[in-house]
Amino acid sequence: METYTLSKIPSCKPIIIPIKAKDCRSDHTSIDADAKTLKDTFKQLRYAEPEVFNQDSDRDTILNQLLEIREKSEFTEDADFLLCVIISCSYMNGCFQDVNGTDISVDEVIHIFNTENCKGLRGKPKIFILQTDDLSISTHEPGKFSNRGEVTRLPTQADSLIYHCSIPSSIERFPWSDSVKQEKKWNTAQGSIFIYTFCDEIRKERGTDIHKLTFKVNASMKGTGDGKEDDIKLKQAELEMKERLEMDKKEKEGEFKLKELEMKLKELEMEERLEMEKMKIEMVKKKATLKSSRNQIF
């Protein structure tokens, strides 16, 4: 498993992007509660004051603001890691909506801070937390989306972890919600169950490895499902995570070997240049010796 060296008190200036899409049927009060929970949690963790985007930001504003953030050292060079939380809604996996309902790919956001585009975050963890209410599952039965909170990995993005939950915050508003026991219903005044649980686990499990933390969050959230079914899904998620970590490790080893090979090629090039320079010097010496011999003759 990849490990990172952090400061005793990790330095981080979080980014919070809470978007209230105009045509989104999710509970907007939940977004406000999520933003407050996140700010309170980050303060308790002694992180810097988070950068909070306007809730009515459109696609261009969001992406341009992220590009500006990339150039600020407090988010990159001076930070131990990047932490970006996005709260919105979506009809499409791997996307979230701006205020006008326009889709923004998560990959676009991550691309801004990847190794090639952001030198200040090279070799540092980049964590992206997403709560996007999936608007397409409002008519589904409860068991149909009990596993929708999952860890997603994009193989092309080194050092990045995406933790994405698309369970809507306002489940009790769905037609079938009457079948859910009162004690299991979620109060949206607390925000989304995912953000609330994530922050709660962070506070309780400070210093815990991020991958283990995601398992704990999944375990805490499984009470809203069917019990045994969720246990099986959690075990499957753990196995998938182990496989992803192995793939990450192989990618890292491949990158290291490639860099090693590039260094050796550079060394060989330098040796060849030195040999050529030596040959040139020898030729000059021979010419000088020959010229001296001719002068002595005459």
Automatic annotation (TrEMBL):
Coiled-coil residue spans: 235-296
GO molecular function: cysteine-type endopeptidase activity
Superkingdom as given in the UniProt entry: Eukaryota
GO biological process: one example: proteolysis
Alphabetized InterPro entries for the sequence: Caspase-like_dom_sf, Pept_C14, Pept_C14_caspase, Pept_C14_p20, Pept_C14A
Domain Caspase family p20, first and last residues per copy: 32-131
The entry's keywords: Coiled coil
Pfam families: Peptidase_C14
Membership in a protein family: Belongs to the peptidase C14A family.
The name this protein goes by in its record: Caspase family p20 domain-containing protein
Source species taxonomy: Eukaryota, Metazoa, Spiralia, Lophotrochozoa, Mollusca
